[in-house]
Amino acid sequence: MSLRRRIAAVTSVVALAGLLSPAAIAGVEPLAIKQVASGLNQAWAVDFLPDGTPLFTQRNARSISKLTNGVVEQVQTINDAVVTAEGGLLGLAVSPDYATDQTVFIYYTSNSDNRIAKLTLGSAPTPIVTGIPRGSQYHHGGRLRFGPDGYLYAGTGDGQNADNAQNDSSLGGKVLRVDTNGNAAPGNPGGHKWISKGHRNVQGVTWAGSDLYIADIGPSDVDELNKIEPGGNYGWPTCSGPCSNPAFKNPVKTWPTSTATPSGLAYYKGSLYLASLKGGTFKLTTSGEGGKIYTELGRTRDEVAGPDGQLWVVTPSSIYTADGS
Prior knowledge:
Radius of gyration: 20 Å
Helix content: under 10%
Distance between the termini: 17 Å
Number of helices: 3
Structural class: mainly beta
Shape: globular
Order of helices and strands: HHEEEEEEHEEEEEEEEEEEEEEEEEEE
């Protein structure tokens, strides 16, 4: 039974019991999630301008668009982006100082690598981090988020070469932390551009307070939710999921890849919301307990706590706002 029908059924039962007045029944919202954009071409990431205007990327269209009063308006195409089975125009993050620097950051696949670039809307991007490994089709990572410390974080993939995840000289299979010029942020372990390694394909990045959590797509066995400790090694490719090697950090939670295949990750109203390419969204505690909601949406790609107080849910073809219930 769909969420709409479940809510309608519960409302009818309560009304028959005399516990709600007709006026109260009329005020019940039948669905606590609303579609605000549709007809999209592999929507991937959303962030917000200071005035609350949403900006979002479409991976296959290689475009940045904005949403104004329910109307999608394309801002520009990133011509250097190259579309593969998982690559193209991926992450997007608006500068915390946008009011003064007018800068947006993007993560995209090029002919030779994955890279992070900055731009002013409508202008050509200037790469600031290059050499992030790309596979022929898969394991690009791609999520961008500004942290509470003001630095830019990026989740990367191993570029279909698992050894990159353990190679300190490679940017693949890592969580990057850089300044707005692409330099290693102060305090990074070993002066690297990364703060954690041993990941396979990081597509979710968020904070619960000061604690950093990431979602990592696993191989054929398990996917992971990890709490990141600076300098931590999360085991890939030696370990997938928890293992007994004390050199590696174990995940907070794992799921079978047939259930999860995680993507974007948000912390909203005290819960983690984990997008799932196997359908729906996981609503979780910070210890990973919980289950799926929004299963009627099918694949979900990104989850973002919006400045409007709503949870923004991105699917490949549509964007929704929700109350997280």
